[in-house]
Write a structure and sequence with these properties.
Length: 504
């Protein structure tokens, strides 16, 4: 190695660092994950300083080549681990690759230092020119943005798959019905597809939040320097274009200390997590014997080591649990940034791990959720029976009376009395004779007619909700077709570039 000092900043120091402090303050043990982003951002910076005359064309070429060799390190490391594994399909986990990479360079303070050290080994002292006109403050801001942008794209791809699964299950449910609940008490019958479309609506909002955050964060901090802007007259649009950003960031102090993009990303994920967790909770409930609405796919369930009869909903429970981490990430990030004076502060280093954890958590969830959803087998018969007991047609019955001119408040009371009577007889409303019903009519006129039975049939109870967004059969058919169309057309949205092009 050349005579480069072991530290990036040792010139003004006379005392060596406390060994424990030195290890404790390093970020390489976790920011090694930013290796591909650091390589891409360094290459973009090299192009920018070459354009400013700091590197010759030949030097730029050598530097870019050196960086790409360093960049292939991660692959080489993962390969080394996977070939030494006894199982052929086994591929190294992220943590294993990281541990090996970190152990390989104990002196690297962070990913930026690591790449410089590696580049020095590859191309010699020319590597020392790379840091001309830049600061780690803008580097980390850039690397993390690139990481978040890629994670957003990966999440959107995962959501597309989950949405596809939800739509397919809804499509194959046809006109099957189930009870809907308020206060977890049976309320009114709905189509199973209508219930599933509720989650499609949530996922569509989650998508749009991620897309929106992506658009807002797609600006390039490179050229912002340590705080006041680069000390060279750089053409910042070169780096921005090379990294697929829409433009350079407008203010160097903001750019080096802003973590809104990470906060927005984790916020969007935490809301998505709420939705996924609610879905997981409903399936957990519905798979219980008490509901009996669905058979959990065996390949996604586990048994009990103690109770031989058990089939446990571990997947949905674990999803519920994992979603807590997403909320945790937002809390860490917002608490971290609150009260920080401008601009960069070392506290910001603590903002990386929540981002990695949130990205890993959502990617893990979305790696199982679509297949699990497709594998759900509903007991439609049982759901339909449940929708036909418990007076779920009482609202439809009251509505029938309003068509006969009875004010709704009055109709509500009449049907309430009829329900009370039916409860005492232990039957449903449709088992009451006209004569029995008529005793609840206003004294002046009998309001129940022979058409009452039809008005409170299961079909009528569904179809009376004939409003946009309601569960009437043809409304749901239209809503489902429209959602499928939006799903099919999502690829035409302009914001998601080809993932291959992400690093420019
Ligand atoms: N590892 C640091 C971080 O993640 C990089 C920036 C360090 N900048 C500094 N001035 N010490 O925040």
């Amino acid at each position: 190695m050349s005579n480069q000092p072991a530290k990036m900043w040792s010139g003004r120091f006379r005392e060596p660092l406390d060994r424990t402090f030195e290890q404790w303050q390093r970020s390489f043990p976790f920011d090694w994950r930013l290796l591909p982003q650091e390589i891409a951002a360094s290459a973009a910076h090299a192009r920018m300083i070459a354009a400013a005359g700091v590197l010759t064309a030949g030097e730029l070429e050598t530097m870019l080549h050196g960086l790409s060799i360093v960049g292939s390190q991660a692959e080489a490391w993962s390969h080394r681990i996977s070939v030494s594994s006894p199982e052929p399909e086994y591929s190294a986990s992220t943590a294993q690759i990281g541990a090996a990479l970190v152990a390989s360079s104990p002196q690297a303070e962070d990913i930026h230092h690591f790449v410089e050290l590696q580049l020095l080994q590859q191309i010699g002292p020319l590597a020392l020119k790379l840091h001309t006109g830049r600061s780690r403050n803008e580097q980390i801001a850039t690397d993390l943005r690139l990481f978040v942008r890629e994670s957003i794209d990966a999440t959107l791809r995962g959501l597309d798959q989950w949405m596809d699964a939800l739509l397919s299950v809804a499509e194959s449910a046809g006109e099957a019905v189930m009870p809907s609940y308020t206060h977890l008490q049976r309320a009114e019958p709905v189509l199973v597809a209508h219930w599933l479309l509720a989650y499609v609506s949530m996922v569509e909002r989650d998508r749009s939040r991620l897309v929106d955050a992506r658009r807002r964060m797609n600006l390039c901090p490179l050229g912002s320097g340590a705080v006041a802007g680069a000390t060279l007259a750089l053409d910042r649009s070169i780096a921005a274009a090379a990294l697929g950003f829409d433009a350079p960031t407008p203010n160097s102090m903001d750019a080096t200390s802003d973590r809104d993009f990470a906060i927005e990303f984790t916020q969007a994920l935490s809301i998505l997590g709420l939705h996924i967790s609610r879905f997981a909770e409903e399936l957990t409930l519905y798979s219980s014997t008490e509901f009996g609405f669905l058979d959990l796919p065996e390949r996604f369930s586990t048994g009990s080591s103690a109770m031989p009869q058990k089939k446990n909903p571990d997947l949905t429970e674990l999803i519920r649990g994992k979603c807590a981490r997403l909320a945790g990430a937002v809390t860490t990030l917002t608490t971290l940034v609150k009260g920080l004076p401008l601009a960069y502060n070392k506290d910001l280093q603590e903002g990386q791990e929540p981002v990695f954890d949130a990205a890993d958590t959502i990617s893990g969830i979305l790696s199982v959720l679509p297949a699990f959803t497709s594998g759900l087998r509903f007991r439609l018969e049982k759901m339909s029976l449940a929708a036909q007991s418990g007076y779920l047609n009482a609202m439809a019955a009251a509505t029938y009376l309003t068509y006969k001119g009875v004010p709704f408040r009055k109709a509500h009371e009449i049907i309430g009395n009829a329900v009370r009577f039916a409860l005492d007889c232990g039957v449903e409303l449709n088992a009451l004779s006209l004569q029995q019903l008529q005793q609840f009519s206003p004294a002046s006129e009998p309001v129940f007619g022979p058409d009452f039975a039809d008005a409170i049939s299961l079909q009528a109870t569904i179809d009376c909700h004939n409003v946009l967004g309601g569960t009437a059969t043809h409304r749901v058919r239209q809503a489902l077709a429209a959602a499928r169309l939006r799903w099919a057309e999502r690829a035409r949205e302009p914001h998601i570039p080809d993932p291959e092009a992400a690093h420019g």
